[in-house]
Structure to design on (457 residues):
């Protein structure tokens, strides 16, 4: 029991480091460990309101903290006093039902995979369909197709979900050894060797253990590879790891926020290796996909039947092109529903609840998104048309104006702006230069840009 208490305290300490003092004290300080049964961590809350708020707002953080504290992806069950007796009565049934799940999760120990991120709950639309199809092919034939698989797209579009889905599929359908890591973990592990002042034998042992961890796998999945920039020694070591695995037909999956060619401060020989297999991009979700994601998010939730369709449309239309923002908006809505318990969640309730999340003005969110919306409205086209591949002057000119405004009104990079317009960064640079030059001699263009700027300022 002492060990259980120590690990639970470690779990709470990890949470505390991730939160402000007021947030931790308000929501988590009074949580108690009730029991660990099967693969479930049962935590007691002394308030139904606090329990509901935590479930709506913090479950992702809780799941991550549980894995760090227990080195196992326990399912977390938050209960209040009245529910514990009912939970005891269902204990035996629950053990039988979850027998297969336990075995599956045991196979994931040491993989760092999130068992909840699978192909089954990866929502597919036009902007990520190709990525999902290629990802599934890799999962079915790891090491035989598309090696390496390089996935890129801006933050919050589902790259991590897709990589975990691939890894989980391989674990569930083979005996292959899978390892998912972030580039920060790779860097930190390598620096233990690089910084070591130990004598030669001990230092060599550190390097041997490092290479055993990363080179003795069948599937290596590394997230946020762009963070290896300025790390020349680490890049060299990653190249060695890459070459060793690739030579043995071991699957390598890499994710980045930009394409291999745009990875600044990376060695050319490493960028060349990234292109040996296949490179796929995940584009920002369109409104159709946003709504599908929102519908999936509320599916099965007891409050879902209260939420009108118009609310989902409102959130989709007024959220940035980012899955995390969609989830944040729904979680915020749930929290307000928990506090006020409305009979129905209509557009009026949603606007009031989300005014600090989405803003009162349709242009008040994400800088690039509001500029795209403002420009599209001004010229009487849709944002989807603005981001399309059409090259007609009546579309191309507004697109270049939008790119120009994004560059002068935000702090985003050429690459980030390009991703939002489904264009290469060189296209953005060309468009901005063209607008800048034309402004010198075209007073009408200057007038139009001022009118648009007034709307977004």
């Amino acid at each position: 029991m002492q060990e259980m208490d120590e690990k639970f305290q470690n779990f709470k300490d990890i949470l505390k480091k991730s939160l402000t003092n007021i947030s931790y004290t308000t929501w988590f300080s009074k949580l108690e460990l009730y029991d660990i049964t099967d693969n479930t961590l049962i935590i007691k809350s002394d308030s139904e309101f606090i329990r509901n708020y935590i479930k709506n707002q913090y479950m992702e953080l809780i799941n991550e903290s549980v894995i760090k504290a227990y080195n196992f992806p326990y399912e977390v069950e938050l209960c209040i006093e009245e529910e514990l007796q009912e939970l005891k009565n269902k204990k035996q049934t629950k053990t039988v039902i979850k027998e297969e799940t336990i075995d599956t999760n045991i196979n994931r120990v040491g993989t760092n995979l999130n068992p909840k991120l699978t192909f089954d709950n990866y929502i597919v639309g036009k902007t990520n369909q190709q990525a999902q199809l290629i990802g599934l092919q890799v999962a079915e034939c790891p090491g035989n197709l598309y090696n390496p698989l390089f996935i890129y797209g801006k933050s919050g579009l589902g790259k991590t979900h897709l990589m975990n889905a691939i890894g989980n599929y391989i674990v569930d359908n083979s005996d292959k050894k899978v390892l998912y890591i972030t580039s920060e973990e790779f860097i930190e592990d390598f620096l233990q060797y690089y910084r070591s002042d130990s004598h030669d034998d001990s230092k060599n042992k550190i390097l041997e253990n490092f290479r055993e961890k990363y080179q003795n796998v069948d599937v290596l999945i590394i997230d946020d590879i762009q963070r290896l920039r300025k790390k020349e020694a680490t890049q060299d070591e990653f190249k060695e790891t890459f070459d060793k695995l690739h030579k043995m037909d071991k699957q390598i999956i890499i994710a980045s926020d930009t394409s291999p060619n745009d990875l600044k401060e990376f060695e050319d020989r490493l960028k060349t290796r990234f292109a040996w297999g296949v490179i796929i991009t995940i584009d920002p979700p369109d409104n159709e996909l946003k709504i599908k994601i929102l519908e999936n998010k509320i599916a099965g939730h007891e409050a879902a039947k209260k939420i009108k369709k118009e609310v989902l449309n409102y959130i989709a239309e007024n959220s940035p092109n980012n899955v995390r923002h969609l989830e944040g908006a729904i979680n915020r809505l749930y929290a307000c529903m928990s506090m006020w318990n409305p009979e129905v969640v209509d557009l009026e309730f949603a606007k009031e609840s989300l005014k600090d999340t989405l803003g009162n003005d349709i242009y008040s969110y994400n800088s690039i998104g509001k500029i795209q919306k403002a420009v599209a409205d001004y010229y009487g086209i849709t944002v989807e048309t603005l981001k399309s591949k059409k090259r007609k002057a009546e579309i191309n000119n507004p697109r270049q104006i939008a790119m120009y405004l994004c560059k002068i009104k935000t702090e985003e990079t050429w690459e980030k702006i390009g991703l939002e317009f489904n264009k290469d960064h060189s296209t953005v640079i060309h468009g901005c230069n063209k607008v800048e030059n034309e402004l010198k001699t075209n007073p009408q263009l200057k007038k139009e840009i001022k009118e648009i700027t007034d709307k977004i300022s």
